[in-house]
């Protein structure tokens, strides 16, 4: 062995460089990426399948999606797979500063402040704090596309289950049974959702929910979202047919609204994604739904926006009218709101006979509880987080439409975390930060400092 091989420089020569480990093999890099994909895929599946499961807290229960989400997102943080978006962090802190300020003012002046819910405020913070994170590394888009594929596969199974639910009832081979409620102890089911929703008043046949979804509208919306993601990822036409059949089994119009909004976005932003095979398969699926026994029930819902006791009116009309009237009752609420959680307690005045059927979506809920300034700041944060910097086409805009207008998604960790994964996780700031994998390597890989 020579002197130089032992690491000692000869006289008049430069010191020998320390030994450098061999670069990571493709298998090692693949393992590191596949672990991230497995974590995100597991989170997607759990968010969908555990929607109805809650953890008892006092007189209510909190969705198990919240601790599960934090657990798996925490793993991504420890692995260095996600990093903080400076823009989103600044917007969230600004919005939360406004929310906390108006809440303190409402609490200080009393009145409605004695009725607000600090639990609602805490849930708001807990759900949206992870939204400041995004995936890092060159394969972040591949990670989110993989999450989209996992979501499609999950919804294909649930669409088939929901279709089987309704078909079995209509043919008389099975009577509706809520197995999950039978299996879980009392208090472990997320409350206040209309899971047992019959096809019509007094009917013994219930709409499809695939047993695990909170309401038929969730089956409708998630099948529609899976269709839109599937068009972007170019899934096979038969999958579109099955997902449309799942929408039909839900007998809910929210998926139709979402699919229509997504189709408009696609026509303007990515018309090449609309392949002839998809058009044909979609037409076949719609024809099958219209030919089925549930067609009459679906078509009978076309006038719901003007019927004050219908779910369509409660979703798209009543919340805005109720909030406007509630803000005008005490004009100071336009500036400081009525306090977190008060939309449920102060606005259910049964002004139009709708009562608890009112579904407060994001904009009216934020406006009434935190005022138009603080609530508006939070809306800006959500919009920027979902739309800024994402290379996805169609999907982010469709999800924004879904969470803002089709459901009361503000305090639903199941929906909020899913929206984060499919939109915000891949978006990033224009500021390029060093990739954590170049500084903290996976096991067996030597560290490489980023180039100056």
The separation of the N and C termini measures 36 Å
The assigned structural class equals mainly alpha
Computed CA radius of gyration, to the nearest angstrom:
25 Å
- Assess the beta-strand content as a share of residues: under 5%
**Globular, elongated, flat, extended or rod-shaped: what is the shape?**
globular
Task: Count the E strands.
Answer: 4
Order of helix and strand elements from N to C terminus: HEEHEHHEHHHHHHHHHHHHHH
The tally of helices reads 18
Quote the average pLDDT: 82
Task: For the largest sheet, list the strands in their spatial order.
Answer: 1-2
Q: Which ranges are low-confidence, i.e. pLDDT below 50, for 5 or more consecutive residues?
A: 1-28, 349-355, 430-452
Largest sheet: 2 strands, antiparallel
The portion of residues assigned to helices is 55-70%
Architecture overview:
About 55% of the residues lie in helices and about 5% in strands. By secondary structure, the protein is mainly alpha-helical. α1 runs antiparallel to α18. The N terminus and C terminus are likely disordered.
Short descriptors:
452 residues, mainly alpha, two-stranded antiparallel ribbon, 18 helices, 57% helix, 3% strand, globular, disordered N terminus, disordered C terminus
């Amino acid at each position: 062995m020579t002197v130089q091989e032992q690491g000692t420089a000869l006289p008049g020569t430069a010191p020998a460089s320390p030994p450098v480990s061999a670069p990571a093999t493709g298998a090692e890099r693949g393992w590191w990426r596949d672990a991230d994909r497995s974590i995100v895929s597991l989170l997607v599946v759990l968010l969908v399948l555990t929607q109805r499961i809650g953890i008892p807290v006092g007189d209510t229960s909190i969705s198990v999606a919240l601790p599960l989400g934090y657990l798996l997102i925490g793993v991504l943080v420890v692995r260095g797979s996600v990093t903080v978006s400076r823009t989103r962090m600044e917007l969230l802190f600004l919005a939360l500063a406004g929310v906390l300020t108006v809440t303190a003012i409402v609490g200080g002046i009393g009145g409605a402040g004695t009725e607000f819910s600090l639990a609602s405020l805490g849930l708001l913070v807990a759900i949206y704090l992870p939204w400041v994170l995004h995936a890092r590394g060159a394969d972040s888009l591949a990670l989110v596309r993989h999450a989209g594929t996992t979501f499609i596969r999950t919804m294909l199974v649930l669409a088939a289950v929901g279709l089987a639910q309704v078909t079995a009832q209509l043919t008389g081979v099975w009577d509706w049974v809520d197995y999950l409620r039978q299996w879980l102890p009392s208090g472990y089911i997320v409350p206040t959702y209309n899971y047992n929703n019959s096809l019509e008043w007094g009917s013994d046949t219930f709409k499809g929910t695939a047993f695990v979804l909170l309401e038929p509208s969730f089956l409708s919306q998630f099948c529609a979202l899976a269709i839109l993601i599937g068009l972007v990822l170019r899934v096979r036409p038969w999958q579109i047919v099955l997902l449309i059949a799942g929408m039909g089994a839900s007998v809910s119009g929210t998926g139709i609204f979402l699919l229509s909004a997504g189709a408009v976005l696609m026509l303007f932003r990515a018309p090449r994604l609309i392949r002839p095979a998809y058009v044909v398969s979609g037409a076949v699926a719609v024809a099958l739904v219209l030919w089925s026994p549930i067609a009459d029930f679906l078509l009978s819902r076309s006038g719901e926006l003007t019927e004050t006791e219908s779910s369509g009116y409660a979703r798209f009309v009543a919340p805005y009218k109720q909030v406007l009237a509630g803000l005008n009752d005490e004009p100071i609420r336009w500036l400081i709101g009525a306090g977190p959680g008060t939309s449920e307690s102060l606005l259910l005045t049964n002004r139009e006979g709708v009562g608890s059927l009112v579904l407060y979506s994001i904009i009216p809920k934020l406006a009434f509880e935190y005022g138009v300034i603080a609530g508006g700041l939070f809306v800006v944060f959500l919009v920027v987080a979902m739309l800024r910097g994402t290379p996805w086409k169609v999907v982010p805009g469709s999800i924004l439409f879904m969470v803002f207008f089709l459901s009361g998604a503000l305090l639903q960790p199941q929906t909020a975390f899913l929206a984060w994964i499919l939109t915000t996780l891949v978006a990033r700031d224009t500021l390029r930060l060093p990739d954590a994998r170049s500084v903290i390597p996976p096991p067996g890989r030597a560290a490489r400092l980023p180039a100056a």
